[in-house]
Batch of 3 targets.
Target 1
Amino acid sequence: MKEIILLKNGELALKGLNRHTFENQLIKNMKFRLHDLGKIRYVSSQSTIAVEPIDENVDLDEAFRRIQKIFGIAGISRCAAVEKDMDVIIPAACEYLRDDLMFAKTFKVNAKRSDKKFPLNSPAICMTLGEKILDAFPHLTVDVHNPELIVNVEVRDNYAFIHGNQIKGAGGMPVGTAG
């Protein structure tokens, strides 16, 4: 399991054919703000940018703080990138979000499955993971309308991303796009 930062682009998705120009400028702005933290890979896919540390000494806490101030980002999450297998996703979610799950009273699971070859559909992922979380944390109850904690699972082409509540980003358009 490796920890990364997952960014949601927000308004950039509205720009159609020139979206890549805005995404490239956003990545350029992030590289400028994070260059002194070590080697970082930026992977853009489906209105999401994954910020993956290549060096083990990259300070993800500091990267997360700096990214929150960059315009063009709607939402930010620290997440675990794991193998796309429910036998890996379930224990990874319980381990990665353990502190949040221990202190929350209510939760829900939100799943997105862009890899249509994954054997379970999104509702089945939610039910399976939710059941296992309830087994591991019996004090929790499910509240789909107003949960304290949302356990997010995104099954993508290469990984499954697991994260808790998303933090709001600075929003707007990236600096340098005159948008």
Target 2
Amino acid sequence: MTTNRLQVSLPGLDLKNPIIPASGCFGFGQEYAKYYDLDLLGSIMIKATTLEARFGNPTPRVAETPAGMLNAIGLQNPGLEVVLAEKLPWLEREYPNLPIIANVAGFSKQEYAAVSQGISKAVNVKAIELNISCPNVDHCNHGLLIGQDPDLAYDVVKATVEASDVPVYVKLTPSVTDIVTVAKAAEDAGASGLTMINTLVGMRFDLKTRKPILANGTGGMSGPAVFPVALKLIRQVAQTTDLPIIGMGGVDSAEAALEMYLAGASAIGVGTANFTNPYACPDIIENLPKVMDKYGISSLENLRKEVKASLR
């Protein structure tokens, strides 16, 4: 009965439960496999993959903040060829029943399309998460990220959807004036779903050096501090689209996961909590039925339908 209560069905993804480690907070799975059986998870979002290997930003790249953290990793990854030859085969061999969501990043629509085309052919890759919080090299858009420009977002999503063999979920940045416009552009371009939110932008200073703590100056802020922002933006988008949303941003408990559902999410990404507690995901999965019982929630699917009806 517990299994049925937690089941989630999304485009390309039939999940035993809604809990998914967020990209960038779980590597390619190997780092956490020593703590627990990854088959406990609903799915796994692997680290962002670009066409060529990236060494990332100079250090320091991580800083603590109250109720969260800043990171400026810079999309460090071994590149598509290594991911296909080494990282994905390990996951597919050790966890053949675990659905994989491949996070794809790039700096032009051609790169997004090329990476998506290649990675979507891997056996257990059931969906792509499109990271459009990247600068674009094809247009003079005054330093805007792709996800901050609805027209650019449309072009990149459309190119990716056409190149991919699996459904595409677009990861939305909160650093926009109107997130609904970007979500609509993604939907119009053929996206099957959305993931949100990506990190906010912030910075910290070192009082001794009088300089930013991060070598990059600014970084992405995540953790419980961004949770209320994530809820608000998810609700805002859920009121305007029927696309399923994988909600993320500060989730660290079963209660927080259910709040995401109340905002309009259909599944849950867990990010920064994995750094403070490597067992965060299985702990949330274990506690969900207990919290659902406490608040009279028969199943996540019924809760999703109830919330969806209230949004219209």
Target 3
Amino acid sequence: MMMARERGKTFAGFKQSRYASGEYFEQYLQGDWQPKTDTVRALFARSGITLPGREMWARLRDEVMRYGIYNQNLQAVPPTGSISYINHATSSIHPIVSKIEIRKEGKTGRVYYPAPFMTNENLDMYQDAYEIGPEKIIDTYAEATRHVDQGLSLTLFFPDTATTRDINKAQIYAWRKGIKTLYYIRLRQLALEGTEIEGCVSCAL
């Protein structure tokens, strides 16, 4: 909105968009998007993050309807695989892949990445993506998709005992939940030769 205001220009087709009519903002004006539990409220407070309330959304709606938006697409969530390890975070909005993930990095050899913020005291509270299963991960992405106008990098995780039927069921479930795209399907093999992770280990399916 600020770029549109400064430059006096909006993206092509803005006048026919849900932004121009204000319709896009209705979900934020009618729904309650504040944290529902004390635990989540504490997480936001500790991180110094303040979520906008209805008044802020109403003000933004009015300014967008008045000045427009410069860019048509505003957000996408990339995979951020290797970068996430450096930043002590998980990739995309996935749960952890493993409590301690082992990767082989070029000449460095084996590199061990413990899950973010994991300690001996909270170790038992961690579940990895394979333990959580595809449906709960899809449910999380479906909620986030409502707020993302492009796409989110979504990988599905299965044990190596999964069949093509299991994978197809998850793909259909994702489609029914409104997921825009699936990125990779990863299989956890109980016995791997070496420790290399070369991307999509399920491409042989």
